[in-house]
Amino acid sequence: MAQGKGNLLVDHKLFWKLVVVLLQFFAVYLPPVGQMTVLGMHIVFILIGTIIGWIFIDLGWPSVTGIVALGICGAFDSMDAALAACLGSQTQWMVFGALLICAFVAESGLADVIAGFLLNLKLSRKSPFIMSFFFFISAYVVAAVSACQIAVLLFIGLYRGIAEKAKVKPGDLINSYWLCGLALCSVFGEMLPPYKISMIILLNIYNSAVAVPLSVLQGMLWGVGGSVVLTLTYIFFCKYVMRVDLSSFDPDILQIKKISPTKEQKAMLWYIGIMVILLIVPSIFSSSSLLVFRGMNYMGFGGQMLILVIVMMSIPVNGKPLLDMATMGKGFSWNVFWMAAFYTTISGFISKPEVGISASLSNWFAPLLQIMPAVVFVILAIYLGSNCSIGLPSANPVNAIAFSSTDLISFKTQSRLGWITGFIMATISVVMYFVMAVFFNMAGIA
Predict the structure, then answer these.
(1) How far is Cα 328 from Cα 335, in angstroms, rounded to an integer?
(2) Neighbour tally for 14: CB within 10 Å
(3) What's the pLDDT tens digit per position in 95-151?
């Protein structure tokens, strides 16, 4: 029986690989629609095929085939140019350095240290809903310094033991409350630090649609403030509207053992702090004439990240380098690396006038833009795409992990809670934008 299921899985993935190849390499010959050009049709179908591959196969294989498709579809003059664009950008090498650090966090147990510290705060043990807030924020912090997949895997594992002690029944709304919250905050954590690809993409999308762009510092402040507000909104909505009952939870259940960090873990926390400072400072002093700031701006995010990696590989801690690529190789997420290489490259084509995608989208959404300010439309698009995606198992890797926990949740309950709370938070996000805009002006943050 096990062998039969294995063969079925192989056949299932083979089918979707064929679908991906057909979309990326052959469906592009369909006639253009709207104002899209032939190249625009190529880009659209390559993107659609890759997204389908991400949902039904994995992140790596469809991304690599997507890069090959970009190289031969006419988007670039040659395959050399396509590979240089995908693998030679500042963003890609910033992602590379971040994934190395994420691998260290996963291999070293630093995520457990952070979770243990936050969950042992006295305030987090006063009531079940306060506990849940700190539990979600702990996942947020772990995702911010590592990866959202690491955070959601770690905290679902922690919650599974807690749910067993609390005798929560499978499929209960309580389980969906915890897993939706973890998925939401894990994704929020992916959008916090300046080296996270999600934040870079969101800032680029936002800045391309408004007259006054956001700096990296403003983006981080918006990300932190927005994440806390939306997490509290989620908790209050579930408690008072969805009537989630946590009375069966004793606050002491969530008292995870506090772990003292090792010397290596302390050193990595310092490096993460230095990294965040290095990536924020250039955006604040971009016009400074001081040599140090000019040098940092010249190196860019990718160059600074590589220098930091070199330092971590060179300076020993307890007699050995803090970062060893041979050791970190097992935890390095190549799937995410190739996904970033593909996505950051193809996203640059969407706004180019010669492909006609932006013009087609503008015509399709023109009625909405006539009754809604452009900035509100952009915010809604971003937050509906990110927050409401907690109701879809195929929206991102975090959701795939959450929805796969069938011993805890039912698909219907999880999806329903995700969609409802997602729409509520999208509405709150628009209001929050105007509040933050006033704050930025009052604080003089440019």
Answers:
(1) 15
(2) 11
(3) 787 777 767 776 777 767 766 676 666 776 677 888 888 888 888 887 776 667 667
Q: How many CA atoms within 13 Å lie on the side-chain side of 50? A: 26
Instruction: Quote the radius of gyration of the chain (alpha carbons, Å).
Output: 23
Residue 208: other Cβ atoms inside 10 A: 12
142: left (phi over 0), alpha (psi -120 to 50) or beta: alpha
CA distance 251 to 119: 10
> Sign of the CA dihedral 136, 138, 140, 142?
negative
DSSP letters, 106-168, are HHHTHHHHHHHHHHT-GGGGSSHHHHHHHHHHHHHHHHHHS-HHHHHHHHHHHHHHHHHHHTP
Cα–Cα dist 197/19, whole Å: 27
Taking alpha carbons only, the member of 395, 382, 336 closest to residue 92 is: 336
Angle at 156 between CA 155 and CA 161, to 5 degrees: 100
Structure tokens at 254: 């969530």
- Rounded distance between C-alpha atoms, residue 322 and residue 221, angstroms: 30
Contact 139, 152 (CB under 8 A): yes
Phi and psi for 287 in degrees, rounded to 5? -100, 5
Whole-angstrom CA distances from 360 to 28, 201, 344, 378 are 17, 21, 21, 16
- The torsion defined by the Cα of 115, 116, 119 and 120, in degrees rounded to 10, comes to -160
362-366 contacts at long range (C-beta below 8 A, 24 or more positions apart): 363/34, 363/35, 364/34
Query: How far is Cα 388 from Cα 23, in angstroms, rounded to an integer?
Result: 26
Residues shown for the chain: 446
DSSP 77: S
Q: Do strands 316-317 and 320-321 pair parallel, antiparallel, or not at all (unpaired)?
A: antiparallel
Q: What's the whole-model pTM score?
A: 0.64
Residue 379 CA from chain centroid, whole number: 17
Q: What is the pLDDT of residues 349-377, one digit of tens each?
A: 776 777 777 667 666 665 655 655 555 55
| HSE toward the beta carbon, residue 418, CA cutoff 13 A | 31
